[in-house]
Amino acid sequence: MLRKVKWLLPLVFAIIFWQCQGSGNKGTLSGKIIGADGKPPVIAHVHLVEAGGDVFHPFKSVKVNKDGSFSITLPNQKYLDLYITAAFHQQLEVPLARKNDHQSVKIDFQLESYKFKKHFDQVKITGDWNDFAFSTAQPMHKEKDGTFTFQVKPKADTVAYQLIGLLQKEVSVNGTQYDYLVYDHGGDYKSVLKKTDSVMTIVFDPKKLPRIYNDALPKVLLKSGSLLTQDFMDIKLLMDRYLYNFQLARLQYRQKFGTDQGFKFDFSELIKALEKKKQETASKEVKDYIDFQRVLLAGYGAQVDKAVFQELAKNVPLTDPLWSLNPQIMPFVLEKAYGSKKATEMMEKEFDKIPSKTARAFILVRSGMQAKMRHDTKKLSAIYNQLKSGYNDVYFVKYYLKMLNPEARITVGKPIPDFSFKEMDTGKTISNKTLKGKFYIMDFWATWCKPCLGELPGMEKAYQKYKDKNFTILSLSFDRSPDDVRKFRKGKFKMPWHHVFLDKSIRNKVGDEFEVGGIPKPILVSPEGIIIALEGELRGEQLDQTLQKYLGK
Fold this sequence. Notes:
4 domains, 5-stranded mixed β-sheet, Immunoglobulin-like
């Protein structure tokens, strides 16, 4: 199951458009799904999601038949995302955009196999005994024959589990031992074993993993229905390959250096290929879609000319359905094209005409975060109430409501709640009372949190710069064990400041008290014990700028 992490620009793999025929019927989407080996997968599902949504929040899902066939009724929605999931295979996303009606469509898919690691030094397991939590996943024991084992006492008639560490990216997937598989409602599958004893041994055998790698996959073949052009499929495959290589290269860099800072990836060949396709097509839809993909690359560090942003902003009105395919991208494009002030004016003027509710929600969240940064409580309250009353059904809004709540306890201008912890390194007590008289950052983090690790170079630089100016840092870990923190600090990042491990007995209470909806969550506290900066003001380049404001250069 994919860890829920909030990306600035989620991947968009393909767009399918089909023409309406004025039937007035909802229509169906049907077809066949086969695996990398040319056979139906052990288990697979098709999920329909609102455009711009994610696989965690589908309109509906159907299990694929044993022969790989499927049929799903299309809801009364003009724009949808289609997700295909299957055991041992990469998830495939195909955003669908119908022009007017509900025509039936038939499409066959051949999926791409997972690219499993060649060798396994460590495999972790999580299951129904720990609510499938990543933070408390435990290592399996490596046997002499190359298999991995783990013993568990079943709580019921079955044991369900997933494994972490089979892929380069940190996701949980089903194992090789199972009586049957069930969908995990997050993009992958759980292995389920029927109870056979009071203590059961779960075995992972790397030799049983299907290793079928084909660079030509995945494939999408239209059987019936009208697609706009094959160009969309070509663009999809091109983007997919490059972005996969990007993610793999970034992961390898992070494993080597412990951070993303300094990582670069050469997108020049991809950009040239996209530009060539744009010159070859006469279709405005294809040209706009190519520009849409070009600006997405900026979120991955590619150099994209300002002219591309300006052309997309000029050619695609805010009311155009293209924006709904990635609702977060509208503010990003407009700001790059026209600057923040004009972008805000344009979005406020056209707000009620924007068809995508998800896009409107992102606009409100952006305005709310800006109001919070400016400490504009009046506007923040108005946006909070608007989101709460009209957009609470949008999947990501509940997360941001916690951040934007004007009545929150953890807010600039309010006193930091009382706290008292035992330090990991010294065993001494550290509290808001012992830190009174100092500027300090409370940083909630974990060694498994990639965004947290990405902030460490800046944190260490800031600590060295300001540690002699009445400033310190208190890191509070959500890790599985204190040994995870100790081991991590023996590596590149020493983190030479105060450390606290939040064990199970206090973790939830502290998280609630300090309103930790996600990590990292840094909080800057004044010598008087008042919160003076939060989160975005203390991340990336903003960290040093904020500290300069209070501590000087």
